[in-house]
Amino acid sequence: METLDTSPQSSGSRCHHSGGARFGRGALFLLIALAAGFVGGYASKSLAHNSGSLMSETMDPAQMDERVERMVKHFAVEVDATPEQKEKLTAIAQGAVRDLAPMRGKVKSARQQAIELMGAEKVDRAAIESLRAEQIALMDATTKRLTQALADAADVLTVEQRKKLAERAQRFGHRFHHS
Questions:
Q1: d(C-alpha 54, C-alpha 37), whole Å
Q2: Its pTM surpasses 0.70
Q3: 78 falls within a domain
Q4: Residue 56 DSSP SS3
Q5: What angle do CA 112, 118, 120 make, to 5 degrees?
Q6: Total domains, the chain
């Protein structure tokens, strides 16, 4: 009979944070900064209908670019970015936001479809599955584009700047994950 090892040395009972995990958190913070909250907004309010949202229906591309510029400006201060880095980061973030903006309409449409499917007289399992598959594909495309922007931005930053970002993300994460 096998027994489960629950000692502190057991690999399954303790969370180990490597430098890679810390960079991952820093990368996530950068992603959020560069995409102007798009990831978090995708799950909640940034994709809402309010006019303060980056993906607001009332915001034209020029306004989105301006909003991204302001956000990158604040981010650049945090990592002591040079003017050249700031320019490159702005271009990366604006490109990602432009590419991702049309997805907002797709999310809105999918929500409406889900409401209609759930309110129908008869449950259409095939339609529900089709909608689910479409949304997985949309999320895959979204995360691929965000990952591309993240890697592009990481290439622009120095190792020291990425470490500073990782440290900031670590502190930021502690506010939301008390363990």
A1: 8
A2: no
A3: yes
A4: coil
A5: 100
A6: 1
Q: What is the pLDDT of residues 25-47, one digit of tens each?
A: 455 444 444 443 333 333 333 33
Task: Report yes or no on 129 lying in a domain.
Answer: yes
Tokens representing 9? 């040395």
Helix axes 102-119, 125-156, angle to 10 degrees: 160
Q: At what angle do helices 125-156 and 19-34 cross, to 10 degrees?
A: 100
Of 148, 169, 175, 147, which Cα lies nearest the Cα of 25?
Answer: 169
Contacts for 158 with CB less than 8 Å, ≥ 6 apart: none
For the cut 50, the answer to whether the pLDDT of residue 12 exceeds it is: no
Q: How far apart are CA 106 and CA 83, in angstroms?
A: 36
**Whole-angstrom distance, CA of residue 16 vs CA of residue 93:** 32
Phi/psi class of residue 37: alpha, beta or left (left: φ > 0; alpha: ψ in -120 to 50)? left
The per-residue pLDDT of the chain, averaged, comes to 75
- Is-contact 100 142, C-beta < 8 A? yes
Q: Which domain holds residue 148?
A: 22-174
Decide if pLDDT at 65 tops 70: yes
Give dist(CA 158, CA 141) in Å, integer.
28
Residue 11 belongs to some domain of the structure: no
Take residue 162 and report the two structure tokens written for it: 């990425």
Task: Tell me if 7 is assigned to some domain.
Answer: no
Whole-angstrom distance, CA of residue 74 vs CA of residue 33: 9
